[in-house]
Amino acid sequence: MSVPRATLASSPISRGASVAFRAVHAQWGTVFAHLPDLGCGRSWEAVWKTRPPAPITCVECQHPMYAKTSRSGLRFFAHAPHAPDCEIARQGESEAHHLLKLELASAARDAGAHAELEVRAPDGSWRADVLATDPGGRWAMALEAQLAPITAADITARTDRMREHDVTSIWFSDRPRPPWLGTVPSIRLEQPEGTKRLAIAEGLVKFTDRGWSAVPASLTQFLAWAFASRVVPHTPRTPLWYPQRSLATVWTTPQYITAEDTHLVEDERRRREYEARMAALGAAREKKRDEIRAKNAISRAKALAEATAAEQAARAAQTGRLREIAIRFHGIDLALAKLADEHGVTATVGWSTGDPRYAGGVPLVDENGVTAAIFDPDPGRVRGHAFRLLAGLLLIFPSQTSQQRFEKAKKRTTYKPIDGYRTDFVDAPPSGTARSRRHTSSARACTCTTPQLVARIQNAEYPAESSDQMGPATALFRAQCRACGGRYEKPWRRTGSTPINRTSHPGPRHSWQAPGPGQ
Question: CA-to-CA distance for 249 and 238, rounded, in angstroms?
Fold first, then answer.
């Protein structure tokens, strides 16, 4: 039987009314207001507006009840005045809630089950809106119409209480977005336009391809499947396709659960195969890079040896004009200090300044004439021999801007090391400041007959003595007399490589040679 859904308003049937659809007739036994024959072969008129009133009482409290109808034609039983405080008297449910219960009961009967409304647990711990049972007594299922707000904790607790009595439950709502949907086994219903029966809107799904999609079905069809265990509750592990909401619990067939399991196993297999393939490709790439690095190490060692030979030749020839110019490059003193402080390398400007292998930069060489770094190379000139040398050295720039300019320029060329250039910068002050005028000290000159010299090189003092000619360090650094405190302006040379009193500890001293990033 289909129940008219003339109204689903949430207003009560009458303010303060307590309604029921089941009562007890003194002669006929249990009667049901929603059944055409009251469930006992009698008409509604046999109990409605009769004089004297029909002998009908509440199944809960045995208080007299009256047969009544709402403005929309809904038939029900209501307590007579002065009813005791029984469960039915307290409910005050809306007409929409009762209509939905009738729909559930009607659909359950159409699906082949026996259905009763407002069935109470033997111990009174719960009450089912509709209790559907197998005619053979094998199962019992509560069909709950839930239109009022309820928390996830409350609906879960009510479900658990029924399960303790071997009664499973399905919760139904015909509201657009019940927030509890999917918290427990549940279904959202809707009445399609042009039809008189309710249909499944959310909660019944099937697995297709890689996710879940909705299954159209009537309420009666769904209940027939649920009663026969052809559909069961399931927690999906793959997404529900839009516009379906992501629900924690859905209804589906066991075959679709198996399909999801198969998909997940296959997806995991594909994922492992992909990761193994990517790992193999990564290992092959790294092996190739290691081979390139090994080749680069050889070519860079050769380039560094050639640069060292060029430096020794330049020192022997004493071609120092370009070197003297390079010494005055803005910020080069800070670059030498950075080498000493951060890398423990005491360096000076190379005599081979101007060689094309430095790409327009200034070679900074250690005490053995080995190039330790290049100061401010021109990115446009880094190619050929220059590229092989600079790709394995530290490049120091007079500012961060010039460092960034170099790196940006080299990104657009084929002359790019496999591991990138090793670059750094110093914060050189503007030209003309006191910090850049390192050769214009106002200290007085030493006039001692026997000066006691020390050489100030970066952040350390080294022993020194008078000399007949200027050594490599004297062109860049100054000597000072400890006896008078004045600067020593005559030729001098350093007599030891061990600092007398280092003012900052740059770490162990060694000849700098870059570890050689790949080309």
Answer: 12
Q: How far apart are CA 186 and CA 169, in angstroms?
A: 8
**Cα separation values, 312 from 33, 244, 305, 396, Å:** 115, 79, 11, 23
- Spatial CA neighbour of 179 closest among 150, 145, 213: 150
10 and 98 Cβ atoms separated by less than 8 Å: no
Q: Which pLDDT score, from 0 to 100, does residue 163 have?
A: 95
Q: CA–CA separation, 454 vs 144, rounded Å? A: 98
Contact 351, 314 (CB under 8 A): yes
Q: Which residue stretches of the chain have pLDDT < 70?
A: 1-19, 87-93, 319-320, 429-443, 458-459, 470-476, 501-519
Q: What is the structure's pLDDT at 12?
A: 42
Please report where in the chains the tokens 């007299």 appear, as a residue.
64
Nearest to 478 by CA among 515, 451, 498, 505: 451
Closest to 237 (Cα-Cα) out of 268, 206, 264, 204: 264
Q: What angle do CA 471, 473, 476 make, to 5 degrees?
A: 120
For the full predicted model, state whether its pTM sits above 0.70: no
DSSP string of 243-304, one letter each residue: TS---SSEEE-HHHHHHHHHHHHHHHHHHHHHHHHHHHHHHHHHHHHHHHHHHHHHHHHHHH
- pLDDT at residue number 505: 39
Q: What CA–CA distance (Å, rounded) separates 271 from 258?
A: 20
Residues 6+ apart with CB under 8 A from 378: 359, 360, 361
pLDDT of res. 233: 97
Helical spans, DSSP H, in 318-399: 321-327, 332-343, 385-390
